[in-house]
Structure formats: C-alpha cells, structure tokens
Amino acid sequence: MRRNQIFGYSATALLLLAFVGQGVASAQAPGEAPVQGDVEPGQAKQVNLSAAEQAQAADGYMTNMETTRDSIRRELEDARQQRDVVKTLCLNDKLNQLDVAIRSAGERKRGLDLAASRGDADLASHEFTILSVLFERAQQLDAEAKQCVGKEVGFVGESSTTVNIDPNLPFDDPTDLPDTVVIAQPPNCSSCVR
C-alpha cells in the first residue's frame, strides 16, 4: 500500500503541473480574451479593469487563497489528532498543491504590481489572467479538500426536478413480451459425415 501511495502522490503532482501548465499555456494563447476576477471556473470574461484595479483584485485573490490554506491546515491538524490516515493523506496532498499554487500566484502578483507601476497594461493583463487561473485552481482544491473530510460541497437555494413526457411516445409497454413460446429446430448439418 505504501508503494501505491507514493505513486499516487507522483501522479497527483504530475496532474497539478499539467493543470497549472495548461492553465498558464491557455492563458498565454494569442488572441484569447483574458479572464476577470469574479469568474466562475470555466467562464471567461473580458477584462475591463485598469492595471491598478487588477492589482487590487489580485490582493483579494491572495487573501482568499491564504484563508483557504489556513482552513485546510486546521482540518489537517484535526485529522492528525483523530489519527485518521485517509483524511490526513488527502488533506496533506491538497495543502501541498495549494502551497504550490499560492507560491506561483505570489510571483504573478509581484509581476502584476511591477507592470502596474510601469504602466504596462498588456503585461498587467497577462499576469492577472494567470493569477485568475491560479485562483480558480485554489477554489477547486478547497472543494476537493472539503470532500476529503466528507463535507458536502453544495449550493444555496432550493432545487426542483421537472419531468416532461413527450405525448408522441407510444403507449405500449416495450417490456411486455408475447406469451407464445417459439421453439426452433436447429438446421440440418450439410457437411456432416455419417
């Protein structure tokens, strides 16, 4: 089992690198619109913020990511006190991935601040786009960490299900088979030797 855990972490680390690399690569693709701060994962919006406003939004991202890290760290400490190995391993993995994302986001934040101070709007937008992707990754890791401890990730509000039946469907039950039994004789063998 120890060997599987080691390979699991290696695979997880590779997936993280692939995700961050894909996010960075897609953020750097020419002709693609940068994303804005309050964006749901997977939804891109046009950036209509100045470099100073992007820097301010990035501060909020960093604060949120650090708060998420503190929350996961507390859950990890609780899991260790309870001696729950599965939760401990899962939360430790999520915390490590989040630390990587925060470190990378910190570098991008410094680049964004530098670009904003120089008045380089293109570079600031580029850095802000990548920072937005890292922020989305942190939110995803938070949701995954909640699943580690068994917390339901849900949405506020009522849900309902509506069923519409097509009136053009036949009324016959397709599972209702005829009562007659058909017994078929196997065909005679034409190449058999007797």
Quick summary:
The protein is 62% helix and 0% strand. It has 194 residues and is mostly helical.
Description:
With 194 residues, this protein is mostly helical. It is 62% helix and 0% strand. Helix 1 packs antiparallel against helix 4, helix 2 packs antiparallel against helix 3 (85-118) and helix 2 (51-81) runs parallel beside helix 4.
Report how far the terminal alpha carbons are from each other: 62 Å
* Largest β sheet strand count, sense and barrel closure: none
Q: How many DSSP-defined strands?
A: 0
Question: Mean pLDDT, rounded to whole units?
Answer: 76
- Computed Rg: 28 Å
Compressed to H and E, one letter per element, the order equals: HHHH
- Classification by helices and strands: mainly alpha
Shape: elongated
Tally the helices.
Answer: 4
Give the amount of beta strand, in percent.
under 5%
Q: Any key phrases for this structure?
A:
disordered N terminus, 194 residues, mainly alpha, elongated, 0% strand, 4 helices, 62% helix
Topology record:
Layout: H1 2-28, H2 51-81, H3 85-118, H4 121-148
Helix pairs in contact: 1-4, 2-3, 2-4, 3-4
